[in-house]
From TrEMBL:
<dbReference type="GO" id="GO:0019706">
    <property type="term" value="F:protein-cysteine S-palmitoyltransferase activity"/>
</dbReference>
<dbReference type="GO" id="GO:0005794">
    <property type="term" value="C:Golgi apparatus"/>
</dbReference>
<comment type="similarity">
    <text>Belongs to the DHHC palmitoyltransferase family.</text>
</comment>
<dbReference type="GO" id="GO:0006612">
    <property type="term" value="P:protein targeting to membrane"/>
</dbReference>
<feature type="transmembrane region" description="Helical">
    <location>
        <begin position="255"/>
        <end position="276"/>
    </location>
</feature>
<keyword id="KW-1133">Transmembrane helix</keyword>
<feature type="transmembrane region" description="Helical">
    <location>
        <begin position="40"/>
        <end position="59"/>
    </location>
</feature>
<feature type="transmembrane region" description="Helical">
    <location>
        <begin position="223"/>
        <end position="248"/>
    </location>
</feature>
<keyword id="KW-0012">Acyltransferase</keyword>
<feature type="transmembrane region" description="Helical">
    <location>
        <begin position="112"/>
        <end position="132"/>
    </location>
</feature>
<dbReference type="InterPro" id="IPR039859">
    <property type="entry name" value="PFA4/ZDH16/20/ERF2-like"/>
</dbReference>
<feature type="transmembrane region" description="Helical">
    <location>
        <begin position="6"/>
        <end position="28"/>
    </location>
</feature>
<feature type="domain" description="Palmitoyltransferase DHHC">
    <location>
        <begin position="186"/>
        <end position="325"/>
    </location>
</feature>
<dbReference type="InterPro" id="IPR001594">
    <property type="entry name" value="Palmitoyltrfase_DHHC"/>
</dbReference>
<keyword id="KW-0812">Transmembrane</keyword>
<dbReference type="Pfam" id="PF01529">
    <property type="entry name" value="DHHC"/>
</dbReference>
<keyword id="KW-0472">Membrane</keyword>
Amino acid sequence: MATQWVLVAHGLITLLVVVSFLCGQWPIFQGTFVERIHHFLTFGAYDYFLRFVALIFGSRGRDCFLTVEHYCCERPNPILQLGYLAIIGMTYFIIAKSSFRYIPGHYIGEVHRYFSVVAVGVGVVLFLLTSFSDPGTVTAENVSQYLAAYPYDNIIYAEKECSTCKITKWCHNCSAFHSLIGVALICRPARSKHCSICDRCVARFDHHCGWMNNCIGEKNTRYFIAFLLWHILICLYGAIFLGLILAGQLKERKVIYILTVYYGIENSFSGLFPHVVQWFLGSYNTQILLTVFLVVVAMLLAGFFGYHVHLCLTNTTTNETFKWQDYISWKKKLNEAKASAVALKASTHAVNRDGKSPLSKWKVCCRRAPPQQSEEEVIKNNVYDQGVVSNIYEILVPLSERRSLSHLKSL
C-alpha cells in the first residue's frame, strides 16, 4: 500500500513540475505557486547552480561551465541529436529485451515484432529529414523569390537589411537599392530572421530546434510537424502494446481467478484493483515504468504538436507570436498614453472654463479616459493568414518551391 502512495505522490509531483515549467507563465497561474515554481525552474535554479559551482570550484570552474554552456546552447552541436538517438534506441532495446518474450500473446500477434521496427525506423527517417534538410536559407540566389513570396506588412515586418548577413546582389538598375558600383544591399525578406546559432537568415523562421541541430523554417516545417505527430503515435503505440502484454499475462496466468477463488477477494473493481496493481508492480515493474514514461512523453509531444498545428492553421510562426505580443503590448501602452493625454487636455479645458481648482498633475496623468471614447482596440491583423486550406497547403508546398516563383530565382 505504501508503494502505491509513493507512486501516486511521484506522479503528482512530476505533473506539477511539468505543468509549472511549460505553463507557469500563463495568465491563469499569475500570482500562484505554479508561477513561482516556473520562475525557480527557469531562472532561480540556474542562478543557485552557478553560485554553487563558483563556491566549490572557484571562478575558473564557473567560467569553464559557462564555456560549455555557450557551446551547448548557443553554437551548432550534435549533443541533443545524439541524445534523441540514445533515448529512442535505449527505449526500444529495453522494450524488446523485457517484453518481446511475451510475443505472441493472448492479445498481441507476431507481426508487432516487425511493425515496431518499421515504426521506429520511420521516426528516425523523419528526424534525419528535419535535421539535415534546408530550412529555407536566404541567399543572394533565392532572395528574389522570398521577397516576392512574403510582402512586408509594415507592422511587425518592414524593409530592413540584415546587419549580419549583408546579402548583396549584382543589379543592373541599382537606383531601387542602396547601390555601390552596381552591387546592391538587399533588404531581408519579410518573415525571415537571422539565427544567431546557425549564423544564417532563414525564411519563414519559426525557431531553432536544439534536438534537430537545425532551424525550423519555410522548407522543413512540414517534416517537423510530421516528426511530432509520428512520435506521438509511436509513444501511444508503445504504451498500448505494453498494456496489451500486461492484460494478456493477467489472462494467461488466471490472476483474477486465483485472487477470487483461492484468496477470497471480492470480484469487483474496487476489490481486485489494488491486488492486481501490486502483482503488476512485483512481476512487471519494467513494463509499468515504460508505459508511464511513454504516456508522459506522448502528452508533452501532444501539447507541443497542438501548439504548432495552431500556428500552421493561422499561418503564424513562433517568432511572429513573440513579435505580435511585443507589438500589441507596445500599442496598448501607446493608447493608454494617448488616453491620459486626452484626459489631461480635457481637465485643463474644464478648469479654464469653469475656474475650479485644478486636480494635481499626478492625479490627472494617472486618470484614464473612458475606453469607449479615447482608447482604440488593438487588433492583430495577420496579412499572411489566407484561410485554413491555403495555410495548410503553404506548409505542405512552400511558396519558394512553387512554379509561379521559380522563375525569380535567376533574377
